[in-house]
Amino acid sequence: MKRHCIKVPKNKGEPVRRMLLELEILDNSVKIGTDGKFLYLPLTREPAPDELKVFPDKIELTESDFELHEKKPVPEDLLGFSPTYEIIGDIALLEDSDLDSQKASKIANVLLRTQPNIKTVLKPLTPVIGEFRVREFEVVAGEPRTETVHREYSCRYKVDLARAYFTPRLSTERSRILSWVMEGDTVVDMFAGVGPYSILIAKSNKPSKVVAIDKNPDAVRYLRENIILNSAKNIEAIEGDAREEAKKFAVTADHVIMNLPHNAHEFLDPAVLLTKPGGIIHYYGMAHEDDLFESFIRLIRAAAERAGRQVEVLEKRVVRSYAPHQYNVCIEARIL
């Protein structure tokens, strides 16, 4: 396939390629050609005279034959629709628990075929249930396991999805919470799970201490593994009920993270107890679109009043859509 191109000595090729990218005239639909001594860089159009002035000497405008890039198939191409799934480590988690076995198997096989990084495809059999917030899964295709290592920012999290809750969808939110933490702060993560908030914050080296609490013994086992895996310092992993552990760390926290959106309101009294004067509670809840924040703010104020303290609401935001008309929200509240 004939294309206008720039012929350039191989040792000058990379700088010229970058310049063509900046000008947005490199044709990526075909493969860059070579004859051993020269590269042939395909163009979507010829450079204008002024544009040519910025290129090094020894380039030549010419024409050459090029091979088309082979387009890799994507799931939509093979299925005729876009499947809904999320990727955790090398596991793809199908999001529609109502898929029949035949359709789930078809989607799973296509995912394994088109995405080499996926080794296992799971289908949830239950919603998040129980005090440990876990789900049951069926292995639809691939390696028969529910354990993986998920990479996020500069961290790695080992997790068994059938034993501890984890979602990659809060990665941006976890980074946002990190931005609130200042040098020397103490952070208490009341429902730490395998550590995605706690370890990211600890690895930043900003806090003097991170206390990561969870009641699920499997989650804490992975949390401790992940602390070692990430060489995180100044972090303490505690297996226990956040209500009881709050008594041991009363009035020490600059930040209290309450990422238990369905039940966080049950732990507001110990959260207030944890928070030092001027400290901030990061409260997560599930809210209907008709009342996103005000009911939660009233609950936070009531808990503060029971402790003889006051509340300053600093920020309130929708984190993500959870279900029709339902949203995961976060409220930053300073406890005075």
TrEMBL record:
**A Gene Ontology BP annotation from the UniProt entry:** methylation
Keywords on this record?
Cytoplasm, Methyltransferase, S-adenosyl-L-methionine, Transferase, tRNA processing
* Family matches, as Gene3D superfamilies: 3.30.70.2580, Met-10+ protein-like domains, Vaccinia Virus protein VP39
- CDD domains per the UniProt record, alphabetical: AdoMet_MTases
What molecular functions are annotated in GO for this chain?
Answer: methyltransferase activity
Q: Which domain of life does the protein's organism represent? A: Archaea
A Pfam family the protein falls into: Trm5_N
Q: Which PROSITE patterns match?
A: SAM_MT_TRM5_TYW2
What are the SAM-dependent methyltransferase TRM5/TYW2-type domain coordinates in residue numbering?
Answer: 85-336
Q: Which PANTHER family match?
A: TRNA (GUANINE(37)-N1)-METHYLTRANSFERASE, TRNA METHYLTRANSFERASE
Protein's name in the database: Class I SAM-dependent methyltransferase family protein
Q: What species does this protein belong to? A: Methanosarcina baikalica
Q: What is the lineage of its organism?
A: Archaea, Methanobacteriati, Methanobacteriota, Stenosarchaea group, Methanomicrobia
